[in-house]
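User: Can you help me understand a structure? I only have the sequence.
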Amino acid sequence: MKKIAILIDGGWFCKALGKILKLPNGWPTPDQLYKNALAVKKADEEIFRIFYYDCEQFGNKVKNPIDKSEIDYGVSAANKARNHFFFELGQKDLIALRRGDLKARGWQLKNEYKKTLMDGNPAAALKANDIYLRFEQKGVDMRIGIDVATLSLKKLVDRIILFSGDQDMIPAMKLARREGVQVFLLSVSNSSPWKLKHTIVEDSDGVRHHKLFA
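Assistant: Let's start by predicting it. Here is the structure, written out as tokens:
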């Protein structure tokens, strides 16, 4: 039996599940994610651990710079739903959660307001709902890379199944293969943004094509 580790870039995989399966909230339940993760295991493989990487929702209070209204992201429905998702997923067998940070990166104009300006109305009054707070994930790629290196250098597994299309994973994949660990990528769709780039495929040992199910 080949021992495998399944590493899931949560944002990449969960958005694929939500979009491709047309899920009601655009996001899978922990059961749906878990079943799809287990389904990639082959008959000659034994799971060492399933690593799930994602950020918790932003939980701070901020003020809209236009009307000075306060927004408490900590009590939002999205925040509560994501915390529940983490809790339920963390109770499942062989799961290891790896949490990055979600950082606020400033206010941005919505596309609708930009279009108004480009359509020749530069004097359009800017309202509070014409802007949004932009967020950026921090630490997820780093945590995936550290786990790939640890699993490989300590000879904990024979194969790594990577649920990600992020080309930042290539250095870690190269290290794993140099250490004798096979690295396989998961393909869920040939449509953007889930179509795997040829550069990441060529640094893998193969691609597993998985038809998603609810």
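Now, to help you interpret it: Residues 77-90 form the longest helix (14 residues). DSSP finds seven helices and nine strands in the chain. Let me know which part you'd like to focus on.
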